[in-house]
Design a protein that fits this description.
about 30% helix
Length: about 210
């Protein structure tokens, strides 16, 4: 089970995640988020660091040029598009980096119909809670994962949305052939953008 820790704002914590063999670290480029990385982490420092983990830039309805600039400045390996980005934008970016398309789930969607336009232009999907406030404001709400169990999906996906330590048993019990990893954020923090590394270590051990 791959682990993506999102909302990193501190260079030392990025290094600690790499030391724990966490596979993906999310840097949020959405200015309205309390975990906005733009004024907290030096792109130059991040780019020159020798990490095994994959650096994921998280964007919400960005301009293409802004994503391309961030890829270059921070040395991003992956971009996650969390808004209403078009398949065409995903296709354009897929020539530069791997692409995660995030979908905000309320519980009434036909998952396979939702993802179909992106099937040929993304590398991964991510399924999260129903709104930007939940995703980036740290309210830690969840959606009913059963909606995913009934879908084919047929692409590696991350399970996200308010996952905490108390949910790890349920995460391990959730079965889908395309489940690739979990994405965690606010429930593993001591403050917005500051991760509780003891909880991250617990997560890593529990997901083995």
């Amino acid at each position: 089970m791959n682990i993506k820790v999102c909302g990193i704002t501190d260079m030392k914590q990025l290094q600690q995640l790499d030391g724990l063999d966490i596979e993906f670290a999310g840097l949020i480029f959405y200015p309205e988020s309390p975990r906005y990385v733009g004024d907290k982490l030096s792109g130059k420092d991040v780019k020159k660091a020798d990490f095994d983990l994959r650096k994921v830039g998280v964007f919400v309805n960005p301009e293409l040029i802004d994503v391309l600039d961030a890829i270059d400045e921070y040395g991003l390996d992956v971009v996650q598009l969390h808004g209403d980005e078009s398949p065409e934008m995903c296709d354009d970016l897929s020539t530069e980096v791997e692409v995660i398309k995030a979908f905000r789930i309320t519980g009434n969607e036909d998952i396979d119909e939702l993802v179909a336009p992106y099937d040929a232009v993304c590398d991964y999907y991510l399924f999260d809670t129903g709104g930007l406030k939940e995703s980036f404001g740290g309210t830690g709400q969840q959606f009913d994962w059963n909606i995913l169990s009934k879908a084919k999906i047929e692409k590696p996906f991350f399970l996200s949305g308010g996952i905490g330590v108390e949910d790890l048993t349920r995460v391990k019990a959730f079965k889908h052939p395309d489940l690739f990893g979990v994405d965690v954020n606010s429930r593993f923090e001591s403050a917005p953008g500051i991760k509780d590394m003891s909880k991250i270590l617990h997560l890593k051990m529990a997901m083995k």
